[in-house]
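Build the 3D complex.
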Amino acid sequence: MAWGPIILTAKLALVTTIILLVISVPLAYWLAYSKSRIKPVVETLVSMPLVLPPTVLGFYLLIAFSPGNALGSWLQDWLGIRLIFSFSGLVLGSVIYSLPFMVNPIQSGLASLPTSLTEASYILGKSKIKTLFSVLLPNIKPSLLTGIVLAFAHTVGEFGVVLMIGGNIPEKTKVVSIAIYDEVEALNYDNANTYSLILFITTFLVLLSVYLINGGHLKRFWK
Amino acid sequence: MIEAYVHKKLHTANGEMLLDIQLRIEKGQFVTLYGSSGAGKTSTLRILAGLLSADKGKIVLNGNTWLDTDNKIDITPQKRRIGYVFQDYALFPNMTVRKNLEYALEKGQDKNIIKELVDIVELEDLQDRNPETLSGGQKQRVALARALVRTPEVLLLDEPLSALDQKMRSKLQDYILKLHKQYNLTTILVSHDVGEIVKMSDKIYCLEDGIISREGNPITIFTNDRLSGKFQFAGEVIAIVQEEVIYIVTVLVGNNVVKVIAQESEIENLAIGDKVIVASKAFNPVLVKVEE
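Done.
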């Protein structure tokens, strides 16, 4: 068994989660408070990866970013970025694919806060940004934690998108879920078992910690 | 002085209602918006604070225009510099009492104001507590203090005492009056408690279905001008008993039970639970100094 796929998976999940956190907070904020007409459309797009087969998403990303197409060749010629069969492509695919797992908890957390908290902060002269970071986000820590952990765990577990857009290049795009498939194909059941067990235990521990913390069992450590 | 005119179509539980209000409040006045729920009291307060937009309106405070829909002026709540106490107190759960107060400080503002307010509303022992561990009355005091940290000229109170019992209410009314005087505030209170209004306000606006039906001195309003008494207390009838040819009406004034003799003609329209004013004029009161 090689450590490469495990490190790659951890790296992918970490980078994806950080990027997701940065883009999901403003997106969830907008979804929670906006009265815009296009909100249902945006909500639908954000939630699509929940039901869409990952291969569909992977397929379209593959088509869009292939150097044979306008977008793909533009990215490659002007920015020097190649998104297919590369780590950056994996990150992009994972970000889109795990978006609802980060956005939905944050959005419902924000929506559950009484509006008087926001209004009180405004009346005390504080800006929207200050209110978001000093009042709103600190009061939805459990939602933030749920979003972070679910996005991380979901990225660790993805297969279809990665296979379509990243292929199976060792050290570059070969993550654990693909390595398992690979080992099984090559009849190396022992290796497949080791990888699988690592994923099984990690996901179990990660999710368990969320339930322990959000259920209040570990409240004294998380304040 | 506050001069305000607001006009807004509201969507309420009973369908659409047109809010059309004109207020004129002198500096330092204590004014109450009175009316049944759904009459537009809270909406008026929210429009004054800038939390709700008006379809048409103009609000001017001491020469500063906060809202002028004709000239597209609408100052944000942040810049109106008012104090506002919410019905649910709106204390930030992630901050201690002390941090809640400090959050309200403006950049570079002197911290002494917090100590001063903490002293007035007696919060010394509660400063490190989290809001969720406080009782209703304690939360209310924190909310009051927090609203005044920025030293606003105007204090808006949205039914701040409705969730409290009678004893706590009366104590908090005293705190509010004390703060009102000490900081020379112009205060607007939303309330439908007659006793509270008579005790606290200089002027009352009665709202009915979005318009002001009556305005003026609370006693005059609540007694329809029939009274010119020197001592007046608002209370609630708790018993009416016939004794020979007269009636004894028992009235709860604050925490005190008062018995009043009444003629048959006077009790004709009275029922238990009615709000009444107990007044007296034809006697010479005696003053006795209270030894402390």
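The two ends of chain B are 39 Å apart (CA to CA).
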